[in-house]
Specification:
mainly alpha; three-stranded antiparallel β-sheet
């Protein structure tokens, strides 16, 4: 379809969802889900960031949009994860943040990729995983531990610490270890507990010199062999829990595998506790190969769509495959119409032409998002501004929308149409505005 060929469109929306856009020449309409309450609240803030893209550039745009996604939640990782309710709406927000942050790190920042930091920000996306992930420990188990007189005797205490330490959430692991009841005893903690807690808090930063990391790892191994230290423990569970924690800190691969629940956690654990003396982070090729081995060892179940999405995105990012990343995102329902309407600003494939539609990818997904906003009176002004960014289809879609609004001819319908017409005029969509006005005369 040539770019200058007139486009015929129709728009429909329904109370139970399934809003659709029909473009002439296509056999099937494009159909998308209804917006959630978070989608509607996100619309205005996202538009503000998008309109500042030209003046701020892609790096600031990507970071600002990540902040918009994070706005309803706390920034601190443990508190942030604990604040999440285990419901589909909260997890969908986290999935968007996870995917956005990954695309930002690979396609916008374009330097060394620190997946440990990515996971710390994005671990809430994996709350609905069947495995006992670090996020689920923080959201479900750690809050309940605070009410126990002796939390170290409950089943989640030591596994939670080991998993959190494995994936580099060291402060969170240390905080949980600080709930041990012996810190409140008159005699104080055992020598073993005190020594391991100190070592945990001294974990070198990711950018520390190789010698510092080697010395820290060697100290973990030395404590494992210090039999006199273990004799001070009051409970056998302390001995077992602390020794597993030391094996994690020493980078024992079998232990890292046993304390991580998903391929993502295993990948992060192997990056955090890598035995290589090299200071630099893994290359993109190394990340891809490491991710493949972790998925082979801990494949996601068919129900774990987020883990599957994370793997597909990571492979595309490592291969610099922007079209592949778009395909992966377009097939994931939890990302919704909002995601690609904005994420394509970070990807080089946004300007790729779609010959069967006569527009580029960027306009196609903006159009989808605008049409998802249109049925709601509160978000219709925002939708019109997105249509103004769609030079090929914007005017004719607005024309179809106003026709749909005024189809019954009642006074109430006219009251709804008039503000739409005025806003369309202000946005320069004058052809659609004039056509709609003539129908109201």
């Amino acid at each position: 379809m040539a770019a200058d060929t007139p486009k015929r469109t129709s728009v429909s929306w329904h109370a139970l969802g399934g809003d659709s856009l029909q473009v002439a020449g296509n056999d099937e309409p494009t159909v998308w889900s209804r917006l959630t309450s978070h989608d509607r609240s996100l619309a205005t803030d996202s538009l503000t960031v998008l309109r500042s893209l030209a003046s701020q550039g892609p790096v600031t745009f990507a970071s600002s949009m990540l902040s918009v996604l994070r706005a309803p939640l706390l920034d601190d990782v443990p508190s942030h994860v604990e604040s999440l309710a285990l419901d589909a709406s909260s997890v969908d927000i986290e999935v968007r943040r996870m995917a956005w942050d990954m695309l930002r790190m690979f396609f916008v920042e374009q330097g060394e990729v620190n997946l440990t930091e990515w996971h710390a920000r994005a671990c809430g996306a994996f709350l609905d995983s069947d495995a006992s992930t670090a996020a689920r420990y923080l959201a479900r188990d750690v809050p309940s531990l605070r009410s126990h007189a002796q939390p170290e005797l409950t089943s989640p205490f030591w596994p939670a610490i080991a998993t959190l330490a494995a994936v580099g959430l060291t402060q969170s692991a240390a905080d949980v270890l600080g709930l041990h009841s012996s810190w409140r005893h008159a005699d104080g903690p055992s020598d073993a507990l005190e020594a391991v807690a100190l070592l945990l808090r001294q974990r070198p930063r990711d950018d520390a010199l190789p010698n510092a990391k080697a010395q820290w790892t060697n100290e973990a191994r030395r404590l494992l062999d210090a039999t006199d230290v273990w004799a001070t423990c009051r409970h056998s569970s302390d001995v077992g829990g602390l020794q597993i924690l030391l094996l994690v800190l020493a980078g024992d691969d079998a232990t890292l595998s046993s304390v991580t629940g998903t391929w993502v956690e295993l990948l992060i654990a192997r990056i955090v506790h890598a035995r290589s003396p090299a200071r630099s982070l893994p290359s993109r090729l190394q990340l891809r190969q490491l991710a493949e081995s972790c998925v082979a060892e801990k494949p996601p179940s068919e129900e774990d769509s987020t883990l599957a999405l994370a793997y597909e995105l990571l492979v595309c990012c490592c291969d610099n495959d922007a079209p592949g990343a778009v395909r992966a995102c377009s097939h994931d329902e939890s990302l919704g119409p909002w995601f690609l309407a904005h994420a394509l600003e970070m990807l080089p494939s946004g300007s790729d032409h779609l010959p069967n539609l006569g527009c580029d990818q960027r306009e196609y997904y903006r159009l989808q998002y605008a049409c998802a906003l249109l049925p709601h009176i509160a978000t219709r002004p925002v939708a019109l501004r997105y249509l103004a960014m769609c030079p090929t289809y914007g005017p004719c879609v607005l024309d179809a929308v106003v026709e749909r609004l005024g189809s019954n001819g009642g006074d109430g319908e006219h009251l709804d149409v008039l503000p739409t017409i005025l806003l369309a005029e202000n946005l320069g969509l004058k052809r659609a505005s004039a056509a709609a006005t003539s129908r109201l005369m």
